[in-house]
Specification:
117 residues; alpha/beta; Rossmann fold; 5-stranded parallel beta sheet; 4 helices; 5 strands; 38% helix
């Protein structure tokens, strides 16, 4: 089995978060989950195995873009996947080059391509 980075799923809607975690595990990646940005940042600092951040844009307390900036400052090599029903905003201009975006609702094959790219 290939040693794959752990994926941290950040989504405030529990059912959506659980579904994403299930798909990630089915694809073959280990997963962790958080309901918001502050919790996600704590997990990123505590777990050196997290190598991919999959986040929603609309989170309580901070946006997905704000989380992305803070997370990448903690882990510069962190891969980020934004999963949202919204189109990318201009506030993402500085980080967009290091970010993959997928549109909700996404299927397992779309998620697999984003994780494996």
């Amino acid at each position: 089995m290939v040693n794959r980075p752990k994926v941290l799923v950040v989504e405030d809607i529990a059912l959506v978060r659980m579904t994403a975690v299930e798909m990630i595990r089915e694809i073959g990646f280990p997963a962790a989950e958080a309901g918001g940005g502050e919790e996600a940042l704590s997990l990123l600092q505590a777990d050196p195995d997290i190598g991919i951040l999959l986040t929603d844009l609309g989170l309580p307390g901070m946006t997905g873009w704000q989380l992305t900036e803070r997370a990448q400052s903690l882990k510069p090599n962190l891969k980020v996947i934004i999963a949202s029903g919204y189109s990318p905003g201009s506030e993402a201009a500085g980080t967009r080059a290091r970010v993959t975006q997928i549109v909700k609702p996404f299927g397992i094959e779309q998620l697999r391509r984003a994780l494996e790219s």
